[in-house]
Design goal:
about 230 residues, alpha+beta, Cytidine Deaminase, domain 2, about 25% helix, globular
Length: about 230
């Protein structure tokens, strides 16, 4: 793996500006993050936000940030938030990156795993844990909601799972399952619905509600008349 191949995993069809970085946790684990754009530009996920959120979702604390150049959106915030050591380098760290794409196991109890993941949510502000499993043809990726000192820099569980997938080079998905511990129903927020529509427009979204019931929906039904325009793509 090198910077070129990691940058190639970025999803940047609108700006054409691929960005990537690697966060090293205090325990020495390496988590990649890449720019994940959205047709609704303001909810684009910068590489450093993705990498730090992914690290936090795995119960790790960001300590170092590796980058190739000088420009990364939100760099100043995340550097200050975790007192990150910034390392500019032409080559990636020698240790392997964490692979978040878990292989399918027929014994997986989806509901039980979603409930277990709720304990990994980083929610100092809301105390509202959310978990998500994003499925592929042969595996899945996990996500929990992440909150930091600036609410606008947090990421929902659905977007953490998608950030993991894009950074891992995974683009084909089958369905998304979501669970909340509290509230009347489990439901993706509006921003997540827009991001989910970007990658899973005709897929099933299964919502596991706090009362033990579940419901199944088509992504497009969750966000009718969603914003889209082919003229925005470069």
């Amino acid at each position: 793996m090198n910077w070129s191949s990691l940058n190639d995993r970025a999803y940047a069809p609108y700006s054409g500006k691929s960005k990537a970085c690697v966060v090293e946790s205090r325990s020495g684990k390496l988590f990649a993050g890449v720019r994940t754009e959205n047709i609704s530009y303001p909810i684009t996920i910068p590489a450093v936000q993705a990498a730090c959120a992914i690290c936090l979702s795995e119960k790790e604390i960001p300590a170092k940030l590796y980058l190739e150049g000088d420009e990364l959106d939100q760099l100043h915030f995340w550097k200050k938030e975790f007192q990150l050591e910034i390392i500019k380098t032409d080559s990636l760290p020698e240790s392997p990156l964490e692979d978040p794409h878990k292989k399918w196991n027929a014994d997986l109890d989806i509901t039980a795993r979603l409930k277990e993941l709720l304990d990994q949510a980083v929610i100092p502000n809301s105390d509202f844990p959310v978990s998500a499993l994003l499925f592929t043809s042969d595996g899945y990726l996990e996500g929990v909601n992440i909150e930091v000192s600036d609410w606008t820099k947090g990421l929902c569980a659905e977007r953490v799972a998608l950030s993991k997938a894009i950074a891992a080079g995974v683009r084909e998905f089958t369905r998304l399952e979501i669970h909340t511990k509290k509230g009347e129903i489990s439901s993706p927020c509006g921003a997540c619905r827009q991001v989910i529509t970007e990658f899973l427009p005709y897929n099933d979204i299964i919502l596991h509600h706090a009362d033990g019931t579940s419901s199944e929906h088509l992504t497009l039904d969750l966000l009718p008349f969603n914003f889209k325009s082919s003229s925005l793509k470069k």
